[in-house]
């Protein structure tokens, strides 16, 4: 008997139950979509402006290196603060700070001779503030969404990211090409201000009375907890390896120039998000997967293979298609990683573990872009792209062999997932 079309759509399209049930999740999703739109405009504008000022692969890649230290320091400290203070308050102050950094970049771009050092300093500061905020943002989701809906919430969160990641890079590249970087930074600032209005409506989420104050000791407690959890370490290490070896966005301005498509540079930044959106819109199936560790491994290897293929396909649109395929694989990996984190980490540790997760999520791309730039200096952009993709596949395979407990992770039998499910059920009935 044929399956009705409605049933097929219901099995494929994202589950929007978390949006229907949780007002705070709706506000977080809306504000995040707006913030991401502005952030991705700036993400394209900053390296494009550096490329215009210097014409150097290394100068573009050094932006990622400049962001590394504030990302580590602010990310870890932001996690400790998220477990000890009102998460809503942290989010609001950081959103205002991000608006100020966007304003500073706009003012610098309006100068007759923009200062290169300002791009590095303010860009790094902006990353630091965003990393201070993100643990509070991430740790709020399990508080406002039911435990059994966390997989669906992960897919919806990726859709929020894609809203900005597809249109914004293309718009940012076009704005810089036609009007210069100042309007792009101004639009980024406006997005943060609108998002701030929405975030003010979120309810307060104060820590428990016995919450551990933010300190070096509390940070180390979080690190020790993560190290003891081999399933968590697997998510971090596989993602870092995949990004270090295959992340290559620093090459996009040069690749677009190679194809004579400088004005379409933003499309390359959008390519991964196009693939990610397609995977998200058909990603309801991911909520039915219980072997998320194996899912992360397969998806990360597919990401590396797609990047390697991008180095050898002919033409601009072939490159775009391969980057889109890589983005789809990365989104699936991200959904599985997020599900493992949200279903197994106790609430009192969520902020600190979100800070550690932020390091795995952000360190890899930053170091990967530096790696891509250095390899491009030696052998060109295509060599950097292809070699990085192949190294990614090899590194993921090695980690899969070295971490059997991560490879065998199953949400139906994992002790931490069962304990957190029981805690949430007891809290709901109590």
Judged by helices, strands and strand pairing, the structural class is: mainly alpha
Please outline the major beta sheet: none
Name of the CATH superfamily: MFS general substrate transporter like domains
Number of helical segments with 4 or more residues? 18
- In angstroms, what is the radius of gyration? 21 Å
Shape: globular
The count of DSSP E runs of length 2 or more, i.e. the number of strands, is 0
User: Mind telling me which CATH architecture this is?
Assistant: Up-down Bundle
Give the averaged pLDDT, no decimals. 85
**Regarding CATH, which class?**
Mainly Alpha
- Relative helix content: over 70%
The fraction of residues assigned to DSSP E strands is: under 5%
The low-confidence parts are: 1-6
Explain how this protein is built.
- This protein is an all-alpha fold.
- The chain has one domain (22-202, 225-429): MFS general substrate transporter like domains (Growth Hormone, Chain: A, Up-down Bundle).
- 80% of the residues lie in helices and 0% in strands.
- The chain is built from 18 helices and no strands.
- It has helices at residues 5-12, 17-21, 23-54, 57-82, 87-110, 116-144, 150-179, 181-199, 216-228, 230-246, 252-258, 265-281, 292-310, 316-344, 350-379, 381-402, 404-407, 415-429.
- The radius of gyration is 21 Å and the shape is globular.
- Residues 1-6 have low confidence and may be disordered.
């Amino acid at each position: 008997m044929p399956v009705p079309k409605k049933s097929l759509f219901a099995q494929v399209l994202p589950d929007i139950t978390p949006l229907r049930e949780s007002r705070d999740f709706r506000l977080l999703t809306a504000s995040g979509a707006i913030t991401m739109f502005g952030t991705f405009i700036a993400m394209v504008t900053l390296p494009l402006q550096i490329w215009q000022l210097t014409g150097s692969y290394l100068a573009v890649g050094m932006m990622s290196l400049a962001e590394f230290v504030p990302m580590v320091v602010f990310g870890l400290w932001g996690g400790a603060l998220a477990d000890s203070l009102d998460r809503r308050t942290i989010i609001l102050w950081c959103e205002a700070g991000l608006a100020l950094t966007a304003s500073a970049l706009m003012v610098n771009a309006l100068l007759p001779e923009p200062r290169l050092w300002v791009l590095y300093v303010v860009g790094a500061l902006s990353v630091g503030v965003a990393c201070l905020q993100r643990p509070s943002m991430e740790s709020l989701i399990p508080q406002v969404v039911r435990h059994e809906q966390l997989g669906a919430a992960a897919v919806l969160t990726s859709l929020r990211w894609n809203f900005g990641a597809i249109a914004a890079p293309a718009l940012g590249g076009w704005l810089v090409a036609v009007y210069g970087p100042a309007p792009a930074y101004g639009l980024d600032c406006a997005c943060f201000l609108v998002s701030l209005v929405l975030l003010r409506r979120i309810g307060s989420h104060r820590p428990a009375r016995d919450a551990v104050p933010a300190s070096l000791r509390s940070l180390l407690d979080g690190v020790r907890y993560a190290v003891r959890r081999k399933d968590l370490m697997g998510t971090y290490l596989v993602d870092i390896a995949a990004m270090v070896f295959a992340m290559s966005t620093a090459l996009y301005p040069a690749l677009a120039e190679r194809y004579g498509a400088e004005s379409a540079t933003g499309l390359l930044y959008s390519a991964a998000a196009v693939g990610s959106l397609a995977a998200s819109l058909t990603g309801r199936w991911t909520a039915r997967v219980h072997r998320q560790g194996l899912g992360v491994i397969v998806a990360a290897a597919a990401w590396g293979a797609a990047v390697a293929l991008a180095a050898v396909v002919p033409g601009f649109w072939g490159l775009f298609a391969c980057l889109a395929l890589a983005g789809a694989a990365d989104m699936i990996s991200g959904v599985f990683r997020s599900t493992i984190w949200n279903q197994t980490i106790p609430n009192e540790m969520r902020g600190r573990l979100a800070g550690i997760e932020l390091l795995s999520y952000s360190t890899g791309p930053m170091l990967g872009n530096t790696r891509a730039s250095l390899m491009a200096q030696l052998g060109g952009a295509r060599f950097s792209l292809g070699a990085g993709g192949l190294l990614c596949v090899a590194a993921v395979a090695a980690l899969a062999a070295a971490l059997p407990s991560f490879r065998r992770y199953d949400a139906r039998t994992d002790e931490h997932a069962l304990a957190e499910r029981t805690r949430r059920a007891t809290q709901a009935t109590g």
